[in-house]
Amino acid sequence: MAIRVMLVDDQVLLRTGFRMVLAAQPDMEVVAEAGDGAEAIEILRSTSVDVVLMDVRMPRLDGVEATRRICAQPDAPKVLILTTFDLDEYAFSGLKAGASGFMLKDVPPAELLAAIRSVHSGDAVVAPSTTRRLLDRFSPLLPSGTREPLHKGIAKLTEREREVMLLVAQGLSNGEIAARLVLSEATVKTHVGRILTKLSLRDRVQVVVLAYETGMVRAGGGAG
Question: Distance between CA 57 and CA 70 in Å, rounded?
Fold first, then answer.
């Protein structure tokens, strides 16, 4: 079954370009387009979508708030933020709002397609190390440590799961975590899955964001 994609951008020309790239793929289908976040939310009420390509700077309702509202819904589509500048503050806000990653608008077509497939399969498309750099830059905006009492799910993690969560937040891949903790990669993947379930998180990107918000990791990537 084809991946159902929605394009949200106020620039018609840009949407046209993305649509042409996606239409050439046998496993993808552009099922909807919107010129701003408000229109996107309205369309999603009646259209089934798997992945939303979301611009951030749009009239009426920007992509960050639209992402927040979309991701708050049950069985929400995955959202991939599109930004003009690397480490944009909007990308930071989009990740906090629930996006599964961000891409630059001038990304090569092959990378965009790979990102859509990754998001659809449940993975985050931003390397945790890239997310960490983003959060390092904007960490002064985070209420460091203030969400610890509010996110009681962390207390439910085992000692090993806390170890794995910390390493995920520091930007290590499953393979690197396996080598560090002398575990199999499959075991690490299982731990990551349990962490996501216990903390009600969508993907590894949100693990990184939460680790910063709760003070587990501080700017610079060190443990809190």
Answer: 16
pTM, full prediction: 0.72
* Sequence-ordered list of residues with C-beta below 8 angstroms from that of 66, at least 6 positions apart, any chain: 8, 36, 37, 38, 40, 41, 54
| Sign of CA pseudo-dihedral 47, 48, 54, 60 | positive
Inter-residue contact 224 to 218 (CB < 8 Å): yes
**What are the strands of the beta sheet with 28-34, ordered from one edge?**
28-34, 3-8, 51-55, 78-83, 101-104
State the Cα–Cα distance between residues 53 and 5, nearest whole angstrom.
7
Per the structure block, which two tokens stand in for 167? Answer: 């390493």
CB 196 within 8 A of CB 207: yes
Residue range 124-145: mean pLDDT, rounded: 61
Residue 115 contacts residue 83 (beta carbons within 8 Å) = no
Report, as an integer, the average pLDDT of 172-200: 90
Cβ neighbours of residue 212 closer than 8 Å, sequence gap 6 or more: 135, 139, 142, 144, 169, 218
Say if residues 72 and 65 touch (Cβ distance below 8 Å).
no
Widest CA span in the chain = 51
- What DSSP state is assigned to residue 154? G
The count of other CB atoms within 10 Å of the CB of residue 218 is 17
